[in-house]
Structure formats: structure tokens, C-alpha cells
Amino acid sequence: MDTTYDVVVIGAGPVGENVADRVVKGGLTAAIVERELVGGECSYWACMPTKALLRSASALRAARRLPGAREAATGDLDVAAVLGRRDEFAAHWKDDGQVAWLESAGIALHRGHGRIASAKVVEVTGDDGVISTLTARHAVVVATGSGALVPDIDGLRASAPWTSREAAAASAVPGRLAVIGAGVVGSEMATAFAALGSAVTLLARGGVLPAAEPFAGELVAEALREAGASVRTGAEATAVRRDADGTVRITLAGGEEIEADEVLVAVGRTPNTWDVGLDRIGLRPGSWLTVDETMRVVDGGGWLYAAGDVNRRVLLTHQGKYQARATGDVIVARAKGEPVEDGRWGRHAATADVSAVPQVVFTEPEVASVGLTAAAADEAGLRTRVVDYDLGAVAGASLHADGYRGRARMVVDEDRHVIVGCTLAGPDVAELIHAATIAVAGEVPLDRLWHAVPAYPTVSEIWLRLLETYGR
């Protein structure tokens, strides 16, 4: 079968879906190619199922922090119910609903493995081996995302380790779980499985959440230890083996050995570009795709785009969807000969990927951040002032939970008098981060922020306290 569309998208995760949707809404035709489940990593093996695993324990902790509610919370987590709720959010790993949405949006779905064959041509190999050819009039978009990186640790691959996929879709809770890597995935899954009853050992080469402000990782490490987990900083795994009885043995630098029933590897991501035909157009298979501000691939012939994880700008679903909206819109603009707004904060540019990226880590406590850390601001050469405040001292926080522990930091560019970074660590701070995102993305002057009065008594009063500490 040979079919022509205006745009062909390889990858039907949230990014690919959003690109195709914007293209169709712009009056062009679009096809999307998917070799697994429509909805992608986020729907089945990442954002949705992992947050479902974490939420029940978070709610129970919240209840236990309040007199009256504490007395009503008389039992432990129902593990089967937690896993069942996770299954519901993962749609039991069936994509019928997502496929129905594609149909309703007017997006053609081609199931199979998509590979670029030549300029604007994609070959799709179905499960039956039949190859169909899709031709794009205007653009091909690679939105194949990323996969878990499994490092070259002696014996690790042979030991059948878990990656983020196996952890998110686990049908049972291991008695002992070792986690190699203490970034976002490692910290979240250590939090989740410790709450579900695993004896967790978290192995961090450096600290916990090394990309965040140091205080955030320290609070998470403290909470994990209080939950019964072993947090080992400065620990490097040098060898892994699985015995005949299923026991996993992890050897650390220095010779110490740790035993577990499962080992989760969470040390980073790798681009899903090994087998999408990059070699046929002069690009290197397995590489991250370098793009300009409109997500058009550098040295990609002018017709090839890459959105989401695959371009390595920011490996977050919401940022990938943000890129997707810009990508779809700019493809339509170029196809129709309309002006391209690719300047800073232009409609067709992904400016926020550089300066205003929000992220929430759903650990205990939650860590929410946007923009630059203090260290990153220094590295960027900015003249900054860092303002810290104890979140637990805010009236709204003390009402929110007895013994509320948390901290807030804002990083101020002293030359422009705007906030360039904000980090909040504490129970339920996720819902506070969008206010900070608006302040950073909008480059709102501090003098104007004084007039954004937080409601009392809420945790949002932290904004007033940070400004007071900074001074007028």
C-alpha cells in the first residue's frame, strides 16, 4: 500500500499525538505510525501508572498527619487495590480508547515499525511482515521518545534487571528491591515500593536527586530512611548477578555485596532512534536528534522534525507536548507559506525549554521546581541572590499537616529583578509550582509580584514570605 499525507509522524505517544492533532486542526492531513501501544510510554509505563502507584500512600500519609483523620486510618495500604488502580490508569495496557481518539480527531493510524526510507518517505513494517509506504508532502516527525539506559555493569544485563517499565507495570511487590540510581525515576520508585512493603535499598553514586537543589534530595533521603529504606550515597555498583534461586547479588566498589529479589536500573535514558532509518538520510542511528527552535532537525533536509525526548532538550512529557504544539503549528505555517514566529517566546519556538521548565518529583516529600537551580544560575554567569524559607513556618502549611516539613527557594536575577528559578520541597507542593512557572516564564518583576497577594491561610503564602525575606 502506498499512501500520501501532508505529515507523517513516527511515534504515537503524547508528543506524536499532539503534533498530528495540531497538523489536522491546521487544515492538513496527518498519519501516525506506532509499533507498540497508542499513547506511548507516559500512558502505560511512566507518568500515569507510576503516579497511581504513589498516590495511595501519599493520601494515607496525609491522613496520618492530622488528628481525627489519623485515628480513622487504622490499617495499612491494600497492595492489591493499589495495583488494581494502577492497572485502571494504564487502561490494562490496551489502547482502544487512544485509538478511538485518533479516529475522532481525523488522524490516520498505521500500526507497525516505521523507518525513514528516503526524503519524506516512511516504510511501515506490520506484525505480519507486510511493508506499506507512506509519503509526506511536507514533513516527517520523529517522536519515538526514549528508553531506559542499562549501563555496562558487569553481569547486569544477564541478571534480567527491571527498568522503569517493569517497575511501573509490576504485578507483585518484591520483598527486597535494590534501586541503582537516585534520580527522579529511582527516587520515585524507591518511595512507591517502600510504601508497598518492599525492603528498599537505594544506591546513589552521588546524592539523591542530584539535579535538584541539594536540600530537596536531603529531605527525600531523610523521608526514605524514616520509611525503612536504606539510602546509600556514594555507592557504585560494579557487578550484578542473579543466582539460580532468583536472588540478585550486587557488588559495590570496595567489595560489599547487597542482596535483593529484584534490581531496578534507573540511571538515565537513551534515544529510541536505533532503527528509524536515520542511516538512510545521513544521520547516525541511536543518536539524539539536534533541532533548531522550531524542532526542525539540523542537517535533516528541511523536512525532518524531532519532538519530545528524542531531541534531548527536556525529557518530560509536558515539555514534549509543548514542543509538539509548536512543531505542528510551524509545519502548518510553512506548508501554507505563512510567517514563522521563531523568535524568543514566538508561537513556533520552544523558548520555555531553555528558561522555564517545570517539574514535579512525586516522592515523599514532593519536589516541585521550575527554571534554574542556584548552581545552574551561577554556571550561566548570572548575578543572583538566593532566598530560602522554611515552608513549615507558613500558617497554611501548619494547617495542612501537623509537623509539616519543607523548604522553598527562589533564585533572583539581581540585574533584571526577576525570578529565574524556584524549588519547593514539602507535602503537596506540586500544586504550587504553576504560580512559579508563570513568574519565571513571564519574567514578572519582583515589584509587580508584591501585588499578587496570596490567599490566607494557604501554603501559597510562601510567596509573601519569600518576597518579605528578599526585601523591597
CATH topology (level 3) name of the largest domain: FAD/NAD(P)-binding domain
How would a crystallographer describe the biggest sheet? 7 strands, mixed
Residue fraction in strands: 15-25%
Supply the number of helical segments. 16
The CATH superfamily of the largest domain appears as FAD/NAD(P)-binding domain
- Work out the number of β strands: 21
CATH architecture label of the largest domain: 3-Layer(bba) Sandwich
Poorly predicted runs are: none
Look at the structure and give the CATH class of the largest domain: Alpha Beta
Cofactor: FAD
Binding site for NAD(+): 181-188, 268
GO molecular function: dihydrolipoyl dehydrogenase (NADH) activity; flavin adenine dinucleotide binding
Disulfide bonds: 42-47
Distinctive features:
472 residues, alpha/beta, FAD/NAD(P)-binding domain, Enolase-like, domain 1, 3 domains, 7-stranded mixed sheet, 5-stranded antiparallel sheet, 32% helix, dihydrolipoyl dehydrogenase (NADH) activity, oxidoreductase, FAD
